């Protein structure tokens, strides 16, 4: 039985935090236990951990039986990450709601770094570093660092110091409760459902929040980090291209909801600046002589961009009724 215990605080904790972990499959049970344990070690008496099980009755029963020191609840909305997160928000009591993926583990100091970020009253959303933990101990040699987002992780091109960003990486982020009161929850029109490699629900939420509350700050906090497990099935070229394609489709959905200017603001810099440097780096003669496989990374950059653009074009032609 997995024991999840709290660490008593010396005094009342400022900005109590509810950590929400959403899970949907028995296949990640060991990952879920590790994620819960990594958070539990950092909780104070004023914090709480909420596990949301997304329409998987066997996992719900197992979590209720095995996990202690946390609240285990079922997603009371539609299947998918957006409604699972919304269920966690509705059940939460903290001033801040933090989200951790069920296959990620929080590094020491993760929760305190998040808490410190919200000491600034204008901070509405905080994101952290998400470091890949590759099954097999290393990324495929052809995999370009600029595409870490394909596996839900940080990537070359992100800021290395604390600064404002458009949106965080969803695997590790925190949102002030009042932000949900301002703009509502995550949209059902975007977000992952099961294993379909889509997303962008946090992007759409942050765009909506920035429009409703222009003074609200969305910041990247590099002092906090989590380790995100990347299984071998997500290390293939097939998954890489599929994820890029569906990211393009997701961005098209966000553009319909929030406008293309906001939906693609970060992507324009990424395409104009980060990716060209990646290709030039891969084709550097010195690097090629030392590491010929670098040319494959350059090819992966071009192929990944092409797949993403194709997904965006396909998604732009799709019309969906508003929820």
Automatic annotation (TrEMBL):
Q: Which UniProt keywords apply?
A: Glycosyltransferase, Membrane, Transferase, Transmembrane, Transmembrane helix
Residue ranges of the TM segments:
294-314
InterPro entries assigned to the protein according to its UniProt record, in alphabetical order: Glyco_trans_2-like, Nucleotide-diphossugar_trans
Q: Does the keyword Transmembrane helix apply?
A: yes
- Pfam families, A to Z: Glycos_transf_2 (PF00535)
Which sequence ranges form a coiled-coil region, renumbered to this chain? none
Residue ranges of every copy of the Glycosyltransferase 2-like domain listed in the record: 18-183
Q: Which GO terms describe its molecular function?
A: transferase activity
Pathway it belongs to?
Answer: Cell wall biogenesis; cell wall polysaccharide biosynthesis
Family recorded in the similarity comment: Belongs to the glycosyltransferase 2 family.
> Which named protein is this?
Glycosyl transferase family 2
Task: Recite the lineage of the species.
Answer: Bacteria, Bacillati, Actinomycetota, Actinomycetes, Micromonosporales
């Amino acid at each position: 039985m997995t024991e999840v215990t709290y660490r008593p605080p010396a005094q009342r904790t400022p900005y109590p935090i509810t950590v929400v972990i959403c899970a949907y499959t028995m296949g990640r049970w060991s990952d879920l236990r590790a994620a819960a344990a990594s958070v539990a070690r950092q909780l104070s008496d004023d914090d709480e951990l909420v596990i949301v099980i997304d329409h998987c009755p066997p996992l719900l029963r197992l979590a209720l039986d095995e996990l202690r020191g946390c609240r285990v609840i079922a997603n009371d909305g539609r299947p998918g990450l957006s409604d699972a997160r919304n269920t966690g928000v509705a059940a939460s009591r903290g001033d801040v709601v933090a989200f951790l993926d069920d296959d990620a583990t929080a590094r020491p100091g993760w929760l305190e770094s998040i808490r410190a970020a919200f000491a600034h009253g204008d901070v509405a959303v905080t994101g952290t570093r998400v470091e890949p933990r590759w099954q097999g101990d290393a990324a495929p040699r052809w995999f370009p660092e600029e595409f870490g987002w394909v596996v839900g992780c940080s990537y070359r091109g992100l800021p290395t110091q604390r600064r404002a960003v458009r949106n965080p990486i969803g695997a590790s982020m925190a949102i002030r409760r009042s932000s949900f009161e301002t703009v509502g929850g995550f949209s059902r029109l975007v977000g992952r459902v099961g294993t379909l490699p889509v997303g962008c629900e946090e992007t759409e939420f942050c765009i909506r929040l920035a429009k409703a509350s222009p003074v609200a700050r969305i910041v990247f906090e590099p002092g906090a980090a989590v380790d995100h497990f990347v299984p071998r099935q997500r290390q293939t070229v097939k998954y890489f291209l599929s994820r890029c394609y569906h990211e393009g489709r997701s961005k098209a959905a966000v553009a319909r909801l929030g406008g293309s200017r906001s939906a693609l603001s970060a992507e324009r810099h990424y395409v104009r600046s980060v990716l060209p440097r990646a290709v030039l780096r891969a084709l550097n003669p010195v690097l090629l002589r030392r590491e010929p496989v670098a040319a494959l990374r350059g090819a992966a950059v071009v192929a990944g961009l092409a797949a993403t653009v194709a997904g965006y074009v396909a998604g732009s032609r799709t019309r969906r009724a508003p929820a």
